[in-house]
Amino acid sequence: MHELSIASSLVEGVLAFVDRHRVSKVLAVRLAVGELTCVETEQLRFCYTAVTRETAIATATLEIDQVEALVRCSHCAYEGSPKYWDDALSGTAVPTLQCPECGRAAEPTQGHECLIKGIRYVP
Amino acid sequence: MIQIIEAVPEEIYDIELEHSLLEANARLARENRALLDQHGIKAIDFMGAIGSGKTTLIGRMVEKLKDRLGVAVFNGDATTSNDADLIAGQGVPVVQIATVNGCHLDANLVGKALRKVDLDKLELIFIENIGNLICPAEFPLGSRARVVVVSVTEGPYMVRKHPHMFLGAALVVINKIDLAGAMNVSVEDLTRDVHTLKPDIKVIPTSCKTGAGLDEVAAALLHA
Q1: Across all residues in chain A, what is the average pLDDT?
Q2: Contact between chains at A2 and B138 (C-beta distance less than 8 A)
Q3: Please, what sign has the CA dihedral across residues A31, A19, A12, B20?
Q4: Which of A44, A20, A15 is nearest to A32 (CA)?
Q5: How many domains in chain B?
Q6: In order of start, what are the domains of chain A with their CATH numbers?
Q7: What is the ipTM of this complex?
Q8: What confidence score (pLDDT) does residue B23 get?
Q9: Can you tell me whether residue A120 is helix, strand or coil?
Q10: Among A111, A100, A66, A65, which Cα is nearest to B164's?
Q11: Which of A111, A122, B113, B151 could form a disulfide with B7 if both were Cys (CB 3.0 to 4.6 A apart)?
Q12: Residue B149, beta-bridge partner list
């Protein structure tokens, strides 16, 4: 349940923003969660609801944008989506760090994000 | 009677932020790393399921390396000091990190443990993470390399079920290979699964019972 730590960090971040700005009501919090993280968005929503209860942002909706994985291959200079693993037992195909062109190791360039992208509020 | 006032669109502010939720831990991990580098210490973080053999493997590595290098061990364990007691029997400094109900070690806890040992006497610190194959992946600790320990007793689909853990690892140990036949698990298949996720990662099959592969692991850790 690392989602609980992340939800707590999320609430701290938003409340710190509310403290520093003239905010009467937070309407929505927008998150970006990368495909290469193991942050489970449903669990994160559940934790968010629990952690925000009785805070100034209890009614703010949580919008989660998934950020797709991207890699760069130093062997064949490929840049783009990695090879996906269909056989993984996770319901959906899993991004790997394998180059889909040459099959060698590729470096991730995107997909590790876990950030607050934006806050929509009434001043 | 409740009166509701709704903001009209021009009264709504929509601002862009780039506030990382993992940054607090990442910053402490960088501080740990700087402290370790300053003292010329290499830390290695071991992740793996409960019962995969992390403690035993670390114990074997301590046996092999403690006469050559200053070694210490940090044991993450939810509540007990069982693992820490086992390693302390070898006469090296051991810090038990009790996470109480936490499912992973974090850089803050490791930073506290670093203040409990005499860093001037150390060259190598083994950090045993909590037995969990999901949560620790998002929490770097400041180590030089992360090792994932899987064992054949976890079944043939271990890697496929927990792909994320392997993406950030530098070394994978497939442990308890003396039981592969009894478990009807193929070490080659597990190795192939790891290489599907990360083609260049080093995979070493081991048995802490027969000693197979342990010298190779020790050598890999020294070069990590």
Answers
A1: 90
A2: yes
A3: positive
A4: A44
A5: 1
A6: 2-122 (3.30.2320.80)
A7: 0.81
A8: 84
A9: strand
A10: A111
A11: A122
A12: B48, B173
DSSP type of residue B171: E
Q: Based on the number of CB atoms within 10 Å of its own CB, is A16 exposed (0-12), middle (13-18) or buried (19 or more)?
A: exposed
Query: Residue B81 is encoded by which pair of tokens?
Result: 């000091």
Residues of chain B with C-beta less than 8 angstroms from the C-beta of A5: 106
Amino acid making up residue B35: L
Instruction: Tell me if B26 is assigned to some domain.
Output: yes
Domain that holds residue B122: 22-222
pLDDT, tens only, A35-81: 998 888 888 999 999 989 888 888 999 999 999 999 999 999 999 99
CA pair distance B16, A121, nearest whole angstrom: 12
**pLDDT tens digits, chain B, 224 residues: what are they?**
677 666 666 678 888 888 888 888 899 999 999 999 999 999 999 999 989 999 999 999 999 999 999 999 999 876 667 777 778 888 999 998 887 666 678 899 999 999 999 999 999 999 998 877 766 777 889 999 999 999 999 999 989 888 888 998 999 999 999 999 999 999 999 999 999 999 999 999 999 999 999 999 999 999 98
**Which of A96, A99, A110, A113 is most worth mutating to test chain B (most B CB atoms within 10 A of its CB)?**
A96
Which candidate in B20, B21, B132, B166 is best for mutational testing of the A interface (most A CBs within 10 A)? B21
CATH number at residue B82: 3.40.50.300
User: Is residue B139 in a domain?
Assistant: yes
Nearest chain A alpha carbon to B10: A122
CA nearest to A112 within chain B: B138
Q: Is residue B210 part of a domain?
A: yes
Q: How far is the CA of A122 from the CAs of A28, A60, A119, B179, B194, in angstroms?
A: 10, 11, 10, 62, 49
From B147, B152, B142, select the one nearest B176 (Cα to Cα). Answer: B152
Is B46 buried (19+), middle (13-18) or exposed (0-12) by CB count in 10 A? buried
Place of tokens 């559940």: A46
- Of B97, B89, B109, which is closest to residue B28 (Cα–Cα)? B109
Instruction: Find residue B151's DSSP bridge partners.
Output: B175
In a domain, B16, yes or no: no
